[in-house]
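Work Package 4 report. The design task specified in the project plan requires that, given a folded chain encoded as structure tokens, an amino acid be chosen for each position. We show below one input record used in the internal validation round.
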């Protein structure tokens, strides 16, 4: 007799698939991950992930959206925790670093989102690499370095 999946079963599998995909995308990049590898890591047939996601791009979009939501929630919660602007800035900076250090794969997914951002009001130039170097920027690394230096950020290299 076939087993019917509950909403919880579906949500649990999608969450586990996203967890594995987040780690794999961060380690190997989007092109370095296949649906077959994701299925193998989960111990299911190669076709199973297609029951839950349209394709690998759909998984990546979900991973990025969930990571960005968790990141923005952490920053918004920190911003709401203090009335004084200086103290609020400290809380946001601490939340930013705590998220980056505690969720390195999700943080990398957020960074990948921000590299495609062209909205000048979103401070994506503030995302730096884990080794402390500037990293990429959609307007060029030189412009990123200039913006950071204008803001008083000391860079390692």
């Amino acid at each position: 007799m076939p087993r019917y999946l509950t909403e919880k079963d579906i949500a649990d599998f999608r969450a586990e698939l996203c967890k594995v995909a987040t780690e794999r995308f961060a380690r190997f990049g989007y092109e370095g991950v296949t649906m077959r590898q994701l299925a193998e890591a989960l111990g299911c047939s190669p076709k199973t992930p297609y029951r839950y996601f349209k394709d690998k791009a759909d998984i990546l979009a979900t991973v990025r959206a969930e990571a960005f939501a968790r990141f923005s929630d952490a920053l918004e919660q920190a911003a709401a925790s203090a009335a004084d602007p200086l103290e609020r800035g400290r809380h946001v900076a601490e939340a930013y670093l705590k998220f980056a250090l505690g969720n390195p794969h999700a943080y990398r997914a957020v960074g990948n989102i921000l590299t495609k951002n062209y909205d000048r009001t979103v401070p994506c130039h503030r995302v730096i690499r884990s080794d402390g170097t500037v990293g990429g920027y959609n307007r060029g690394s030189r412009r990123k370095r200039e913006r950071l230096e204008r803001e008083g950020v000391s860079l390692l290299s």
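The chain has seven helices and no strands. Validation will be extended to a larger panel in the next phase.
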